[in-house]
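Exam review. A common question shows you a sequence with its structure tokens and asks you to describe the fold in words. Practice with the pair below. Do the first one on your own.
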Amino acid sequence: MKNLILALCLLPSLTFASICIEQHNDEGEVSWLHCPNKTTTLLEGSRNERELLWQVPEGRVPRNGWPVVVLSQGSWFPIEFSRPRNLPLGGFYEAKLIQKLLDSGYAVFAPRATIDLAWITNIPHGDYKKTEDFAVLSELIRVLKTNELAKINQKRIYATGISSGGYNTSRLAITFPGIFRAIAIQSGSYASCFGPVCDVPDSFESTHPPTLFVHGKRDIAVPLFTAKRYQERLKASGIKTLMFVDPKMGHGWSKHSPLVITNWFNLFF
């Protein structure tokens, strides 16, 4: 297991010309990262309309289309493709993840959460399929499947997200079986969990995608044991899964997230 985690950190990846711009401070560190993005409104004109930020890599479109990552934001932290370094919860590394994915040949599609606050996945909602989130995410899947905004490789659709977006990544996997090639959950757990309150099913269908967990050992908002519980149930169900624990991190993006998550997706092509 340790060897596989090490491989995720060292695995070389195909790189494309970067479309992101880095600003550096006097010490030579990146102080601000700018990745350009396009903006589209999903379900425009309806009560469920939601903004979608997206971008494809620089260069020629692959014959089978771009592999794509659906990125779900965390609570109270609206998704943006440009970030300064000094942000709480490791927010800068969300932009670094976007940069790493684009530079590795992945398109990134990032819908905003409900009024930029959180995903409905683990908020009491009755029938999930009657929620605004379900309508928006179903529309996003349709857009990807029909190549409406960009030519997408239908066999290489992935998902990742942090905190509320980590729970939403799990929700995507169980709500749209067979769509996602692999997922990565940062500081989150199973779709309906909420912090330490976490009831995970005993078993999962074989359609559940391979799942990487990236978690801070010191996370008190989403305790590590909740992610481990989910991983253990996946493993018992025969689903490929891996846990990367950052011993110095609490709740938030890890500085290792961009490389580890991208290389996890690279394993499933």
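Now try the second one, then compare your answer with the model answer below.
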Amino acid sequence: MRRPPWAGGRSGLPGMLLILPALAMLAALYIYPLLSSIVMSFVSDAGVGLENYRKAFSLYLIDMLYTVGITILSLAIVFVISVAIAGYLRFNRWPFLNFVYRLPLFIPFLIVGHSMRVFLAPHGILNLILSRITGIPELPGLAFGWGGLVISYVWKQFPLATLLILGAFQSVEDSYIEAALNLGSSRLRVIREILLPISGPTVLVAMVLTFVSTIGCLTIPLLVGAPKPVMLPVDMSFRVTYFNDWGVANALGVISYVIVIVLAYYYLKHMVREEGA
């Protein structure tokens, strides 16, 4: 019986050599910084211990809760918008919408933050338009608060989630949908009871990617967020820039890792259950 190339021996050597550069880059750019940040999070002026974590929780507990809350709220809104657009495009061909919703994919986070800062500011474009319509001269801006932050995150994140979910919806057999419609189901019910359950793994992937990208974003909360509370990446940046305190910054980074790992655990648990079924 012939052994597969990955089983070892001389036949697997060319394959190992081919993937070696990618593995080396992964180790240098991800694994080493990850392990280094974990180790250095336990090192402070007092020695090796939990001093950095004590300081992180005493100074930034509110910011941790704020970060999780903003991320979950943005995730929920992205889910609703993405499923709505993907469901509509599954039943209707609208090339204009199919083109327009993808545009934020190609706009960097820095440009999104600056654009939303101008658009949502107290004297920004949105308030100028609303003032002309309503006649109210002074309207509060959405920038520099949690509302503008959520709007910015959602606008940037929903296109990728929509793209993934739409692809999953389109892969569902038409016969399932036609049978449900013929039996009197509405399109909303078809989305809820047929498309979403069948596309569950892909929807979960889209939400995980959205969560990770949102919780790790720095530029948008710097440009649009409130002075206090702030997202954890802003705290990490300030801790290094103004205090040169890499220990607490690394501790905040590890706390962010743990938050993401909790989500990844439930994702992997769901995927294992799906494969077992």
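Model answer, second protein: Residues 51-91 form the longest helix (41 residues). The mean pLDDT is 87. Full marks require stating both points clearly.
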